[in-house]
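check this one:
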Amino acid sequence: MITVVPRTGSTNADVLAALDAGEYWPEAQWLVADRQDAGRGRLGREWSDGAGNYMGSTVVRPGPHDPPPHTLALLAGLALFEALSMPLRAQALRPMLKWPNDVMLDGAKLAGILLEASGPAIVIGIGVNLASAPDLPERRAVALADVGIAMDRDAFAALLRDRFDVELQRWRMAGLAPMLRRWHSAAHPAGTGLKVSPPGEEALEGTFAGLTPEGNLRLTLADGSLRTIHAGDVVLT
């Protein structure tokens, strides 16, 4: 089910408020907004709400036998990768995943993901530049429209919902290992230069050495040592 509202502050904030008020929000239900006045990205960043873009949120309730909740960012990334690959294939283009939660196109940000918890429930917010891309101070952004693809927002919302449902079932039934193999095949290759800023630490520079079996980032530093990153902002160098 997809519920569309013409304007709100943030779809993630609305779903979190509903959960905190005791409202039941089914896993298959999505809230999508035409416009957002207070959209948020990771690390407290503002997120552009350009008209015609996709802004939506849903809920997952991880069970005791499910993979770790933080890996839902990777699951959402794969769902986005599959949904965006369909229109991009017509232009012989392919998106690329960047840990932990961005979808890139030719080095520019095309889509992002934000996870927030409400008790045992995880709210997953997704933003995709379909019609326009914001001017970001630290990185380039791109929209499907910039590469000649006109994607209807409602059609994309249905496509993403369906892909997310498929990935969620795979995550639960097959576990994390198969998903990580697919994530690696859709991401920047091993050896890619990265600048990583873990929370509360100075930035680290190194090369991508894949993910751990738990979905964390492995970074090879200049001295050859290997560092495991559990959270942080990542920039391709």
Observations:
- The longest strand covers residues 108-118.
- Helices lie at 11-20, 72-89, 153-174, 176-186.
- The first helix runs from residue 11 to 20.
- The chain has four helices and twelve strands.
